[in-house]
Amino acid sequence: LKQVFNKDKTFRPKRKFEPGTQRFELHKRAQASLNSGVDLRAAVQLPSGEDQNDWVAVHVVDFFNRINLIYGTICEFCTERTCPVMSGGPKYEYRWQDDLKYKKPTALPAPQYMNLLMDWIEVQINNEDIFPTSVGKCKEE
Questions:
Q1: In three state form, how does the secondary structure of 50-69 look?
Q2: Left (φ > 0), alpha (ψ -120 to 50) or beta: where does 114 sit?
Q3: CB 56 within 8 A of CB 80
Q4: Where are the domains of the chain?
Q5: DSSP string of 73-130?
Q6: Of 86, 130, 79, 135, the residue nearest 106 (C-alpha)
Q7: 78 is in an annotated binding site
Q8: Is the pLDDT assigned to residue 45 strictly greater than 60?
Q9: Which residue has the higher pLDDT, 111 or 33?
Q10: Distance between CA atoms of 114 and 108, rounded to whole angstroms?
Q11: Confidence of residue 22 (pLDDT cuts 50, 70, 90)
Q12: What is the pTM of this model?
C-alpha cells in the first residue's frame, strides 16, 4: 500500500479547490450529484447561472483525480515486464509523442506511457492559462 501512495511513483495528490471559491462550490455540487444515485446525464448538466468553463474544469480535475486513484491501485501489477506495450487490446497500440524528448510516436511500456501521460495531464491542469483558478480569467481561443 505504501507504494500506491508514493508521490514519486504514480500517485499524485488530488488537486484541491479553495474553500469559499465558486469552483469549490461547483465541486461540492458535482460530488453531491454523483454520490446521490442521480441520473449521470442530469449530474453533469450545467447548473443554471454557472459558467460553463468552470463547470467543465471541475469535472476534468475530478476525472483526473479518479483515474489517478484507479491507476494507483493497479500499477504494481502492470510492470515493464508484464505490460511491455501500452495497448487498448490486441488491435490498438498507443505510442507517446511530446515534441520534447519523444519527437516521433514511440512505443513504450505501459507504466512509462502512463507516467508520461499523467505528468502531461497534471501540467495542463496546473496551467493557469488553460485552467485558471480565479473566476473570470478564462482564456478564449
A1: CCHHHHHHHHHHHHHHHHHH
A2: alpha
A3: no
A4: 17-77, 79-132
A5: HHTTT--TTT--S-BSSTT-B-EE--SSS--S-EE--HHHHHHHHHHHHHHHHH-TTT
A6: 86
A7: yes
A8: yes
A9: 111
A10: 9
A11: low
A12: 0.64
